[in-house]
Fold this sequence. Notes:
The chain is mainly beta. It contains five helices and 34 strands. A hairpin with a 2-residue loop joins strand 2 and strand 3 (52-59). The protein starts with a strand and ends in a 20-residue tail after the last strand. Residues 1-32 have low confidence and may be disordered.
Amino acid sequence: MGVALISSPAFPSVFLFSLITVCLIPKLTLAAEITRHYKFDIKLQNVTRLCHTKSIITVNEQFPGPRIVAREGDHLLIKVVNHVQNNISIHWHGIRQLQTGWADGPAYVTQCPIQTGHSYVYNFTIVGQRGTLFWHAHISWLRSTVYGPLIILPKRGVPYPFTKPYNEVPIIFGEWWNADPEAVITQALQTGGGPNVSDAYTINGLPGPLYNCSAKDTFKLKVKPRKTYLLRFINAALNDELFFSIANHTLTVVEADAVYVKPFETNTLLIAPGQTTNVLLKTKPNFPNAAFFMTARPYVTGLGTFDNSTVAGILEYEFSSKTKSLSSNISVKKLPLFKPVLPPLNDTSFATNFSNKLRSLASAQFPANVPQKVDKRFFFTIGLGTNPCDQNNQTCQGPNGTMFAASINNISFAVPATALLQAHFFGQSNRVYNPDFPIRPLIPFNYTGNPPNNTMVSNGTKLVVLPFNTSVELVMQDTSILGAESHPLHLHGFNFFVVGQGFGNFDQNKDPANFNLVDPVERNTVGVPSGGWVAIRFLADNPGVWFMHCHLEIHTSWGLKMAWLVLDGKLPNQKLLPPPADLPKC
């Protein structure tokens, strides 16, 4: 399955029922600042991978799902119709949703899920954003198959701040289970143990030739010599950060989480679940008489089991007019196939060096508006813990007969029966949540040292309440309670600036002196270093209830999540808009 441009058959275009079409993307001829209508039909579809056929939940019977393409400033109306037995909701990962929190998508946070036979129109405008994002289901583990790219082009006439690419290609990583992922997480939550791991990683839905029975299911990137390609990487995997490399080629990173960065060259990318990275690939000047593996495998820091396998695609050079005379004598299958060398599975040193290279452009056109003053400071511990076994006369499969849990400041989030945003808007908060999430751990301890004897977490539905336009500094500290581990934390509704990170315990008296307040990277998902901490700053300028959670799906399932409630401002453009009439009911 080969691709040469952004309208790859790996991502068939979603059906539009307006007068425009996304098929024009390769020529960048989309009209500027218009309303785009899309329809997502949630349906079952038989899909075969690893010689295993099963029925999976899809959007428009496509796996991965259809590509959404728009321009900065466009207004999107996306009608989602649920034809399956599972409840569904869709999150537009990284979209700010200014004043339109009802369209953000996390089930029981901003909306009740869309039930069988019902529909909901996600209605939002893309304000001040351009780059690569993605959409995915945001309930249980349905995002294992319900996901796709969301590509935002600059406004018409606004160029990229880097070399104009010859072509653009979305590359989205995922995971494949031969079993039903819903059964996997259900079993894990019932037994209290860790979940069964996936059977393969995928590139654009394809496992590639390193897995059994998968040679025909290989993503192939076909390129021409002496060209520059923009590769739009998305990690939609459920539970694994990934290293990626293309043999004998150098990549130039130009964007992270739909924000331009100062370009830098690298042979290997590190991309966590929930993160996106745009790179420029400059092809070789002449036909190389070779093909090249593109491979990805996990970066592992935790103590649990993981899918220790490698997904591969193939970079193939097309014959040019000068080499066509050779094509009859050269078969691509007979060309030597070079393999890249990826870092060791636990290479935290590489992970640290890679993340430290990411810097905002901080230019006049694309400034880094880092909050220079701080109104409120928060210190959150991030990590695993345990709950008591709730099964009578039966031992659970977590540590010492307990059940695995995860928490922020030792609060494991309890999912409410009513959506938090609805409860807030209609004045029903007393029955749904408490506005007293702790701003720091209630009981301090040596976070990265010897773990405490008591590993039990508290459970509750608690929010942090912020006045509009509050300037926030948040330090997230990994803990070693059940082993140090990297956690990719995603914040809905905002971008934030990563002003500092380090190892060991954060020191409020010393570490802030080294914060980067000039050109820190701006993103929506950041890895809390294994055995370390990360500091972010953001301006709470978006009214609504905004989810923050680990993008390792198992950790979210165990409770590593919380929410921020940002109150309305005084001006009309500082207030949450009223809920739409078709907002789903619980």
